[in-house]
Amino acid sequence: MVEGQVYPLLRWIVLLPLFAAAVHGVSLGWLRQPLSRTATIALSCGAPILSFVLAFVSLIRLATLPPDARFLTDTLFTWIGAGSFSADAAFLFDPLSAVMTLVVTGVGSLIHVYSVGYMDDDHRDDRGFQRFFCFLNLFLFSMLALVLGDNLLLMFLGWEGVGLCSYLLIGFWYADRWNAYAGSKAFIVNRIGDVGFLIGIFLLFWALAGVDAATVNFRELAVALPQIADQTVTLPSWLGGASWKLTTLIGICFFLGAVGKSAQIPLYVWLPDAMAGPTPVSALIHAATMVTAGVYMVCRMSFLYAEAPGASALIAWTGLATAVLAAAIAIAQTDIKKVLAYSTVSQLGFMFVAAGCGAYSAAIFHVVTHAFFKALLFLGSGAVILAMHHEQDTDKMGGLRQLIPWTHRWFAIGVLAIAGFPGMSGFFSKDEILLSAWLAHGVPGHRALYAIALVTAGVTAFYMFRLHFRTFLGESRVAPELRARVHEPNRWILAPLAVLGVLSVVGGWIGPSAALNPIPGVDPAQSNSLANFLAPSLASTHHEVAFATERWLAALAVAVAGAGALLAAWLYLWRPGLPARLREAIAPVHRLVANKLYVDEAYDALFVRPLVVVSENVLYRGVDAGLIDRVAVNGSANLVRGLASGVLRHFQSGLAQGYLVVMLIGTILVAFMVMG
Amino acid sequence: MLVEKAVALSAILFVLGTLGALTRRNLIVILMSIELMLNAVNLALVAFSRQWGDLAGHVFVLMVIVVAAAEVAVGLGIVIALFRNRESVNVEDSSLLKW
Amino acid sequence: MIDFLFYLFAALAVAGALGMLLNTRNAVAGALSLVGTMVSLGAIYVLLEAYLIGVLQILIYAGAIVVLFLFVVMLLNLRQDEFSPERLRFTKILGVVIGAFVGVELLLLLPAALGPPAVIPPEFGGYRMVGTALFTDWVLAFEVTSLLLLAAMVGAVILAKRRID
After folding, report:
1. pTM, whole model, 2 decimals?
2. Nearest to residue A45, comparing CAs of A66, A70, A63, A24?
3. Per residue in A325-348, pLDDT tens?
């Protein structure tokens, strides 16, 4: 196996945010002496920025290496060592993790800066400016451990860590109980997926142990996997008795983890409720970074999924179903953040469509561009919320364009990007995805996959433009007394918006395919640079396609998106009364969709209620209070009491002759024993 | 021959003494039964001392007699003290040392 | 001749014991029965050539200890009081049964060989030989018993003393 170059700088990328979080922890938790505002900002924004710089430097170093040995490693210590097996606390910086690291630290730094402006406005009792940054830094550390870990166990550590930080940050304003509930919901649903992740790790390890190649290290896994690529598993008869490929089974297990973390069907329900957290949290965790961990994980394990066509098909169709469902729900939502939340779920579905179709680099490409424009959209919505003094309902907005012009401009750029306006980042990445669906011969029904995805892209454009129009354009529905207080947010907030806006426009130029390359006359082999860059890390699935086909497909996508935008404009700009009449016309359907298809209620009835009932009556009353308390604890005590008061008491009657008899018996026994 | 008979007598007397100590309720009679038991033991000791020709048995008997005497003295003193407090020498009337 | 004497005194001893045990009405009569037992035992000691012991038995047991019993009986002026119903009846029956069982066992164990008695010097059991043994081989036991007597004396005095009111 090729040995990578050892690069000690890598550890600081991960450890700097941890150090910042630790300082905050010591200061708040142990010394009970908060840091000054300046110190907090310097520490907590400095760490991610430094990490980003280090990541960039590492990238430059990475680029100088030849493609087949293009990775840097750094080992801290041996974490688990058992015989010939070892899992180290070690980092791997190959093209895939390089891209993810740059996105995480880059967008992360911007959001940290934004949070300075956002959280400052917070005047609630449980605000905790420093506490927020402590958690944000801790999150960054966990996410970086996740993407930079060189083995499954370290990745899982980071996986759990980001889950924990998500819980902490969603329920940040804990004084309101519902925020705490939302945090718990996120954590619990995540954990359900994590079971699958763990089982996947175990299965993989066990299977490899069978051929004497047990490891959890990614590079070693990639090398060892072909040895078990042909093994099959026969299901027991009560599950159908079918024979499945082992890799497919493992792939499904890992995907379960991704379903939880990246909010796919059926475990997406936590993401919309997670909007209870502060907007920077929604931007960072639930748009740009944490939710993409599932996509990263599938791509990191691409060598596995390349050998598991069944699992890949499942991923693709699950992603599509999620994309469709979320887009449908988003159409009828009126809260800014909820629309963006469902949009995130939908876009994540797109990423999984790409991954399922074998185009892992396309999925990562969309991760990158989605990070740019979704963070931009969330931060922009945060600016709107701040300007509206924490009003989030778009029914009470409208015509904000005159009042907060810069926010409106940057938000508009985000909307154009996500809709796929030609030349912007979203256009390129979405086209890659649709192309991969069109070419995915390994996935059954892939043409239908493409068609539905195309329509969904149109729906995406529709609801994003709807959101934009209802918020910023048209008649103002803002309450009159509020209108005077609406003003542009401060520069801590606007600066990150600007940076992200620019990135949303040019960010796609790192990886357009040769057919769509905006710069004419460039050698085709030089373009598609992101895919080429990522190739050493990912399993390769290469399809030949004519440039003309690509261009036609791209044009079709633009047309569909444009149609969606125009429909939104017609309904919300030019015929403002029409949506209300339409809503009445299809009232039952609208109610169904506006209430998120009652999925939460269904889960509640199907799973939560029975579980609570069982827990309360069977486990608590029956087992705990009844069996353990009453039978075992009280019962044994009562038994002793009964024995003592019923039987043993009579030996101590206080009457001398009773004692005499006992002595007599004892003496005789001893005499007999002595005599033999 | 004589020795065996003496030992048999000793056994009988001992059993009688035990029965008396267990059955009678008058404290003084119980003490007398205990004296009877001690005498039975003395007899056995003397018999065996005769059998093996060892004077240790005689010395032991002397000790037992001394102990018996001391015990009777103190025991009867207790009976008197008990009688003063309870007006009764029924052993079943003094049963406070129970659970 | 010796055998006949032995059986006579044995019968007297057992009779005296039974007299003491079975007599529920008259405590004095019971004590006097015990005297009969003590004296018979003294005679048996003499038959067993334990002369000093035999004499001391009569002197101390019959002459001092039983007299002490009689003192207390007469001091307490016991009547044949009505005693409350007997308690621990089952336990006592159990004890009686066990006692009888042990007695029978002991008797059955006896015929197992004891062999002929040892040859002893003619002064065996006399004051000279017992005294010598007591003051040479067993002098420690002798000294300890004197301490025991001291303790008993102190105890008896304290117990019998009237409170100084």
Report:
1. 0.73
2. A24
3. 999 999 888 899 999 999 999 999
